[in-house]
Design brief:
The chain has 12 helices and no strands. Helix content is about 80%, strand content about 0%.
Length: about 300
């Protein structure tokens, strides 16, 4: 199959990043609903626990759960999970709650250029001029789509400011986590799924420490008091956390960190067909933004 379609093997990391972006877009819509019943910390801890259980089962079946771990890679991945999942995901759930999915995803675009800069400073990873152009064009297209005014918000100014701050913190956490994961892959040959599991462990430790420190006063797990809510949660964790992080780790192993994170940041574009299916109208501006972002993705694929 690779002989017939060599680009699949050559761009495997980039294709994994785009797949992860699509799954995260779908999961963001669902997580936004679940966030009505759980605080960001509680939701992060619960989705991590479910995703860790799924990853452990798959790895146990393949006989590769704890064998042959590289110490430095494990440390890097634990740190990656701590900042990217423990801090980043919790902040992102806070942003979803306070400013909604569109504005939250807008702030997450910043993770792509920050990842590129961090990878340049700490890993010496240099992208071509064409790839940087792709980063800029993709970011511009995504920003054009999700910055569109979709209605008035009743949130107070303080609530909006806090939500934006959460989004910026999430972007920084995602960027740092991506670079640390990429460094672990450079140092070792650990599989993407095992690296995802280790990252989830690191993120869960941070959440467990943060809950008593911040005296988490969000609603308890008892609010998931129906089979429908549990069903939505399990589906969301499977596609957005288990599959999403697995694909993201694949992209970070086989593609440059800046490129992978830029393509992962295209997730807002995939929200458009999702909301169309839900009956929402899409403007000409949104469609033009999609075309601009697709052009940027083309630069990333063709001019690396």
């Amino acid at each position: 199959m690779n002989d017939d379609f060599p680009w699949i093997a050559y761009f495997g990391g980039e294709l994994a990043a785009l797949s992860a972006a699509f799954l995260w877009a779908l999961a963001s819509v669902l997580y936004g609903r679940i966030g009505q019943y759980l605080s960001p910390l509680k939701m992060n801890l619960l989705k991590n626990a479910i995703a860790m259980a799924l990853a452990s089962v798959v790895l146990f079946q393949s006989g590769g759960l704890f064998t042959g771990l590289d110490t430095l890679a494990v440390v890097l991945l634990l740190l990656s999970g701590a900042v990217g999942i423990g801090v980043g995901d919790t902040a992102y759930f806070g942003a979803l709650r306070h400013i909604g999915a569109r504005r939250a995803l807008l702030t997450m675009i910043l993770s792509a250029p920050v990842t590129g800069i961090l990878a340049l400073l700490f890993l010496g990873e240099r992208l071509s001029a064409g790839a940087w152009l792709g980063v800029l064009i993709t970011g511009a297209g995504v920003s054009w789509v999700i910055a569109e005014r979709v209605g008035n918000s009743g949130s107070a100014t303080e609530r909006k400011s806090f939500g934006v701050a959460c989004g910026l913190l999430a972007a920084a956490g995602q960027a740092a986590g991506a670079v640390l994961s990429h460094a672990a892959f450079i140092h070792s040959n650990i599989s993407p799924l095992r690296s995802a599991l280790i990252r989830l462990v690191g993120g869960s430790v941070v959440v467990l420490i943060a809950m008593p420190l911040f005296k988490d006063s969000g609603q308890g797990y008892r609010n998931l008091n129906s089979g429908r809510r549990w069903g939505i949660l399990l589906l969301t964790v499977f596609i957005g956390t288990f599959m999403g992080i697995w694909l993201q780790q694949i992209s970070l192993k086989y593609a440059a960190a800046g490129v992978a994170q830029t393509l992962f940041a295209t997730s807002p574009l995939f929200v458009i067909p999702i909301v169309v299916c839900a009956g929402e109208r899409v403007s000409l501006r949104a469609l033009l933004g999609v075309l601009v972002a697709i052009m940027g993705v083309g630069f990333l694929f063709g001019l690396q």
